[in-house]
Design goal:
Layout lengths: L1 E5 L4 H11 L9 E6 L11 E5 L7 H5 L4 E6 L5 H6 L1 H22 L4 E7 L22 H18 L4 E7 L1 E2 L13 H10 L4 E3 L6 E5 L1 H13 L10 E3 L3 E4 H17 L2 E3 L3 H9 L7 H5 L8 H12 L5
Helix pairs in contact: 1-7, 4-5, 6-8, 8-11
Length: 319
């Protein structure tokens, strides 16, 4: 199968590429096109082709989608913090470029399995206690608004047979390796990652703030799994909330202390940021995972196990 990943040099895109190229991949990849505006890591696998491009360029969709494409993972995005600071850039990348890709698929390969990485930021404001896929999307950020608009497009394009869309709404991913990005929820990784690497980190929220989380390993597995679902399996509504679990900031720091000790915990400083708090507190914190689990998606156990996995798999340390 020919597979394309946008945002391939990013944290999730890079890991998804490695996952799809592994012998245990659930998808038989014969060609993997990796696209981003920055060069990614060099891979020796002969199936891999890379392209550096601006996804908002007029000819970007033509370069990414041809009649041989089977699966398209659309992960490229301007993250929440940047999208709030630069409204025009956020919509140009997060909405306009996505629509151009869907239009290209519509006219060239309408059977394309188009997997779109959306976000729990599609929800916000006054919400019921428990969220399902059929709760109305009421985003409280420009990032979430663009994601919601693309979700609606994918559902309509799929209804009309223009594309075979699958929308995966991602929880906050923690613990991300590497460095912080401009997402307003990036502290959910920073307050764990930095202290475990001996670096100070700032927690910008109250300790009782709850986040809906997933680990990198689980979310990558779930993104890939979305492409393996049979056509029509999701029914008329192509959006699926990826399984996650809730944890307070305090519970996250408790896990940090268990794994890294008091020394790691002492590296976390507290400096509340109203902008971050406002956005995080607008996000839902309890989802019904049952629909996603019925389709074969998976969920993590506890945040403590997530932190232990980060230490073991990313830091290569024994626990």
């Amino acid at each position: 199968m020919k597979v394309v990943i946008t945002g391939a040099a990013g944290f999730l895109g890079d890991r998804l590429a490695d996952y799809l190229l592994a012998d245990s991949s659930p998808i038989a990849v014969t060609e993997l096109l990796l696209a981003d505006y920055l060069p990614g890591k060099v891979r020796s696998d002969k199936r891999v082709k890379t392209i550096v491009l601006d996804i908002t360029a007029p000819d970007a969709a033509d370069k990414l989608i041809d009649s041989n494409c089977d699966i398209f993972f659309h992960l490229a995005a301007v993250v929440s913090g940047r999208a709030e600071l630069d409204f025009d850039l956020g919509f140009k990348v997060n909405f306009d470029a996505s629509r151009a890709l869907l239009e290209r698929a519509r006219h060239v390969v309408p059977t394309l399995k188009f997997v779109f990485a959306s976000s729990l930021a599609a929800y916000g404001g006054h919400l019921p206690p428990v969220i399902t896929e059929f709760v109305a999307s009421t985003p409280q950020s420009s990032y979430g608004t663009a994601k919601s608009m693309v979700e609606l497009l994918i559902n309509d394009y799929s209804r009309r047979g223009f594309v075979d869309g699958r929308v995966v709404r991602l929880p906050t991913v923690s613990v991300r390796a590497g460095t912080a990005n401009e997402a307003l929820t990036s502290f959910a990784s920073g307050i764990i990652r930095e202290p475990l690497n001996g670096v100070e980190s700032v927690c910008p929220t109250r300790l009782d703030v709850i986040l809906w989380l997933t680990s990198p390993a689980t979310v990558i597995k779930n993104i890939a799994h979305a492409a393996t679902l049979t056509t029509g399996a999701l029914g008329q509504w192509r959006c699926v909330n990826m399984p996650g679990f809730g944890a307070t900031v305090q519970e996250m720091l408790n896990a940090l202390e268990v794994v890294g000790g008091k020394k790691a915990l002492s590296l976390v400083q507290f400096e509340r940021d109203p902008r971050v708090e406002q956005l995080v507190e607008s996000l839902p914190t309890d989802f019904d995972n049952s629909r996603a689990l019925s389709f074969g998606f998976t969920v993590d156990t506890t945040f403590l196990e997530v932190v232990r996995s980060y230490v073991r798999d990313d830091l290569k340390r024994k626990i």
